[in-house]
Amino acid sequence: MTMPLHLDAEAFERLVTDELDELPDEMVDGLDNVVFVVEDRPEDGSLDLLGLYDGVALTERGAYGFGEMPDRIILYREPLLAICANEDELRDEIHVTLVHEIAHYYGIDDDRLHELGWA
């Protein structure tokens, strides 16, 4: 049995930033009023959820504009660390989680993400 990977919050956030920089411009250039957040765990304390899109998908927005609170894409550090044996696996999981949650921003649901191999 392998031990879970350990990485402090600062080092983890650096990996998230690195992976964001690796995403295609076409994917991130369209993001408007979105912040990326790292939290240790989901509110329920579980290790089941790797990330979350907290907002209104682009395809469902009506009157959206000035003064709106930003949407959030949250990555959960402890669940991601728990499923990875090394930093390379962690980078891959962060990348997939970012793509998955950004796709929700664009209105792509879990069924379609599964079809595309991102769920």
TrEMBL record:
<keyword id="KW-0378">Hydrolase</keyword>
<protein>
    <submittedName>
        <fullName>Putative Zn-dependent protease with MMP-like domain</fullName>
    </submittedName>
</protein>
<dbReference type="GO" id="GO:0008233">
    <property type="term" value="F:peptidase activity"/>
</dbReference>
<dbReference type="InterPro" id="IPR010428">
    <property type="entry name" value="Zincin_1"/>
</dbReference>
<keyword id="KW-0645">Protease</keyword>
<dbReference type="GO" id="GO:0006508">
    <property type="term" value="P:proteolysis"/>
</dbReference>
<dbReference type="InterPro" id="IPR038555">
    <property type="entry name" value="Zincin_1_sf"/>
</dbReference>
<dbReference type="Pfam" id="PF06262">
    <property type="entry name" value="Zincin_1"/>
</dbReference>
